[in-house]
Amino acid sequence: MTTTVHGHDKKVWDEATLTALPEDGYIHEVVNGELVMSPKNTFEHGQICARLLTALLSHVTENKLGVVLDSSTGFWMKNENCRAPDISFISRDRLRGLTQPPRAFFRGAPDLAVEILPRSNSPSEVNDRLKDYFESGARLAWVVHPVERFAEICHSPTDRSLAGSEGNLEGGDVVQGFSYLIAKLFEPWDWE
After folding, report:
1. In what order do the strands lie in the sheet with 26-31?
2. Max Cα separation, the chain?
3. Rounded Cα–Cα distance for residues 80 and 34 (Å)
4. Alpha-carbon distance 35 to 6, whole Å?
5. What is the pTM of this model?
6. Quick check: 45 and 146 in contact, CB under 8 A?
7. Fewest 10 Å CB contacts: which of 113, 127, 173, 188?
8. Is 113 helix (H, G, I), strand (E, B) or coil?
């Protein structure tokens, strides 16, 4: 569930005001000029993120393809929404010319945006996020549905296909050579 904070006077949310917010247990984004706060995610959500982020980071690092970032990274969309995907990938080509990581939120969407849906996200919220990502330069998005155990592979807000747990998350021409079995996101622990 997300909460929008409304005020009598419309506040302008910029990077300084966003980064100055206290650590209050919420994820903060700006959507249509309003501060949107979402509660921290569940254990299951964190485990799925960690598994996919680890696999993606290992592949990207080994092949020197770019950078992989976690959900604490802010991205300024073309419409001035500030989004924070659960996992992001930015290609080496887009980062060329930077001598160090920017000390600011990234301008534009990542090449790959990954969302692991909490139970509370509505279809319209997902559609809005995808629209922001693709209008701001994303080339691929994966939307993981933990409850139903499938993923959406999105090449645009409307070009979306479903992949069941026996399918793969494929990097295609965005994250070349990456493939991850969706069922591995949901595997039980193996302590033996």
Report:
1. 3-5, 34-39, 26-31, 82-83, 75-76, 106-107
2. 58
3. 11
4. 8
5. 0.86
6. yes
7. 188
8. strand
Residue 174 corresponds to which tokens in the numbers above?
């965005």
Give the residue ranges of DSSP H helices in 8-163: 15-19, 43-62, 92-95, 123-135
Per-10-residue mean pLDDT of the chain, 192 residues long, equals 49 77 76 79 91 98 97 92 95 86 88 89 89 98 96 97 97 98 94 82
Kindly state the tokens that stand for 72. 């604490």
Q: Strands, DSSP E only, in 6-109?
A: 26-31, 34-39, 66-70, 75-76, 82-83, 87-91, 106-107
Angle at 30 between CA 27 and CA 32, to 5 degrees: 145
- Which amino acid is present at 91? S
Q: How far is CA 123 from CA 143, 144, 157, 164, 165, in A?
A: 11, 13, 12, 18, 20
Which helix (DSSP H) or strand (DSSP E) does residue 161 occupy? Answer: strand 160-163
Q: Given this model, what pLDDT does residue 9 score?
A: 53
- Phi, psi dihedrals of residue 189, rounded to the nearest 5°: -65, 145
Kindly state the tokens that stand for 125. 């919220």
Cβ partners under 8 Å of residue 130, min gap 6:
141, 143, 154, 156, 157, 160
